[in-house]
């Protein structure tokens, strides 16, 4: 049944948005660890039950800087009980640098998550930045995009709404 829903999503939208590569079957994702804005340890498992757009980025990455406002607008538009943009900074210089960056470019809707060790890059096989993974409600990877994208485009929003409307989110 999961394969039928995935096939439906792949054919319902003419093509995956933002050059997102959708896998034929959902893939298991490594359980990466990071901290939130309060310094509390978090994992991807904390977000199960929602569709997650996991974006691995850094303040020194020019394409990351360009796409962050689109991720912020996407979270403002769709974020809630069914969907979460999880912007995971891999800046080794820590939380204050990311807080300052958020303030400088006006990020208002994205929560602050940091992996100062950048272990997430290795665990997720995300060797370029930005790297974005689309996760289903069970935390499995449905697809990914390496490089920047316009995440708040109408095509992306429509695609994510279709995905959120499926019972299992895949």
TrEMBL record:
A Pfam family recorded for this sequence: Redoxin
Compartment list: Cell envelope
Entry keywords, A to Z: Cytochrome c-type biogenesis, Redox-active center
Entry-linked InterPro entries: Redoxin, Thioredoxin-like_sf, Thioredoxin_CS, Thioredoxin_domain, Thioredoxin_ResA/DsbE_sf
Every Thioredoxin domain range: 23-165
Signal peptide: none
PANTHER family in alphabetical order: PROTEIN DIPZ, THIOL:DISULFIDE INTERCHANGE PROTEIN DSBE
Name the record gives this protein: TlpA family protein disulfide reductase
Organism: Pseudomonas lalucatii
UniProt lineage: Bacteria, Pseudomonadati, Pseudomonadota, Gammaproteobacteria, Pseudomonadales
